[in-house]
Amino acid sequence: MSPTDPPAGPPADSQAEPAAAPPVPVLHALTVPLSALGADAGAAPDLRELLVGPDLLTWTVDGRGLVAWGRTAEHTVRGADRFTAARVWWDDVAAAAVVEDRVGVPGTGLAALGAFTFATSSAVDSGLVVPELLVGRRDDVAWASLVVAVAPGTPFALGTEDVAAAWVRRLGSAPGRAPARAEAPAPDAVVRLSPGTLGEHEWREAVREGVERIRAGRMDKLVLARDVVARTDAALDAVAVVRDLARRYDQCWTYCVGLGGSPSGAGRLMGATPEMLVRVLDGVAHARVLAGTLDRDAAPPGEDPHEYAARVLGESEKQQHEHGFAIDSLEASLAPYTDAVTTSPEPFILELPNVWHLASDVTAALRPGPAGDPPSSLELAEALHPTAAVCGTPTAVAAATIPELEQMDRGLYAGPVGWLDAAGNGDWGIALRGAVQEDERTVRLYAGCGIVAASDPESELAETWAKLRPMLQALGQRAAGAPERLVPAPGLSAG
C-alpha cells in the first residue's frame, strides 16, 4: 500500500454482526503557498481555470474558493444523526492528523468537502471527503495542500516536491500552472428531457393541495420541489457542465461533490447555488437568505428590467411575506449561538442571469461554547437546516408534508453542501440550481418554489423552469459553441 492509499476496510460479510466503525486514518497534510510551486507570486489564479479531471471536487465563486482532486479519506453517514456522526469522525481525523500549514488562512491545512441530505429519512448517503490535492484561493492568497494517509507510527514527511508531483499527476501541467485546454469541437448532441417523479399536471395539483392546507391554517409556508430527468446521447462531460456553471453564474457558489467515487459518476452532486446557508470564518457566521423569485424573461419589452424587478419583488406582498418567513427562521435558529444577529435593513434585489431574487445578508458573532471555542461551520449547518427557504413554516409540519406531496426522496437536493477545515471554518451552501448524476448519460435535475396562500400553481411551475435553466444551459453547452438542443418528452415543456 502506498502512503496515498486509504486504509482498506474489512471484508463484507452479510452474516456477521454490524461492523464497528473503521479506525480513524492517520493523515499527513502539507499546505504551501502557490508561489512555492512556481506560480506568479503577484497574481492569484482564477480557480475556474483548474476545473479539470474526472474526480473533481469544487466549491468556487467568481474564481475563488477550493478546487480538489482524489479522495484520501471519506466517511458516509445516514439518518437523523448524520451531521453529528460526520462531526465526530472529522474531529477524530483532525486530532490524529499531522499537519504543516505554511499559509494559515481558512481552508488551509486539513480540509474536507461534503454534502448532506435534505431529510433525515433519505436513503441517500451524506458525508465528507478529504481530497488528496486541494488548491485554494481567498482574496489574493493562493495555496496548494497535499494530504496522504499513512499507517499509524510510520515515519513520514511531506515536502514541497511532493505537492508539485501531485499537481503534475492530477493536472498534467507544470506545478502552479493551469493546464492547457485545447478542446476539440464536440460532436453535436441531444439532451432529452422526461418527467421525474411527478409530471407537470401532478405537480400543479400538489401545489393546489399545499395552498389549500396553508389557507386552512395548517402551515404558513411550504416549499415544494420537482425533478426532471435529462439524458444525453453521448457520455456526459460533468466537468464541462461545472465549468459552464462557474463561468455563467459567477455570483453563485459552484459546487461538485461525489461520495463513493463511482466510475460512472453516479451520485455526483453539481450545481451553482445563490444561497449561502452559513459561512463561519474566525468565529463569525455569515448567511445569505433568498426567498422571492422573478424570472428575468418575464420583464416586459420597453421597461427598464431593474425597475421592473424592484417593482414586482419589492412591492409584492406575497414575495415580501415569503422572504420574511425565511429571515425569521434563520434568526430563530441562530439565537442559541449568538447574542446579536445583524440583518440587511431591507431586502435587496440579487440579479442572476436567469432570475432576480429578494435577498438579505445576515451576520452574527458566535458565542464560545463550554470548551471556549465557537461552534464549527458544520454544527451551525445542522442547526440552521432546513430553513424556511427550502422547507416551510412551521418546520416540522412542512417537513412532514413535503414527501407526501412531492412523492420523492429529495436526496442531496436542498441539503447543505460545502467545506470545512480543522479549525471549524467553512462554507455551507444550500444545494440548489443543481442536479445529481445517475449514470454516464443521465442526470436528475431539481427545482422548487415557496408556496404561500396567494400562490398560483401555473406561476409556480413557470418558476421551476426558470430555476432549472442554469443546469439546462450547462447541459446544452458545447465546447465548440453549438447551440442547445433540448428535446422535451411528450407532455413536458422546456419553459
What does the model show?
The chain has 495 residues and is α+β, with helices and mostly antiparallel strands. It has helices spanning 82-96, 160-171, 200-215, 238-248, 305-314, 317-334, 377-384, 395-406, 457-476, and strands spanning 26-33, 56-61, 64-69, 73-77, 98-101, 111-115, 126-130, 133-138, 141-150, 191-195, 221-232, 253-257, 269-273, 276-281, 284-295, 338-343, 348-351, 355-366, 392-393, 416-421, 426-430, 434-439, 442-451, 486-488. Strands 1, 2, 3, 5, 8, 9, 10, 11, 12, 13, 19, 22, 23 and 24 form a 14-stranded mixed beta sheet that branches. Strands 4, 6, 7, 14, 15, 16, 17, 18, 20 and 21 form a ten-stranded antiparallel beta sheet that branches. Helix 3 packs across helix 9 (457-476) and helix 4 crosses helix 9 (457-476). The relative contact order is 0.17.
Largest sheet: 14 strands, mixed
> How many beta-strand elements?
24
Structural class: alpha+beta
Query: What's the assembly state of these chains?
Result: single chain
Alpha-carbon Rg, integer: 22 Å
Tally the helices.
Answer: 9
Residue runs with pLDDT of under 50 for 5 or more positions = 1-19, 477-495
Ends distance: 52 Å
Question: Judging from the principal axes of the Cα atoms, what is the shape?
Answer: globular
Mean pLDDT: 88
Helix content: 10-25%
Q: In percent, how much strand structure appears in the residues?
A: 25-35%
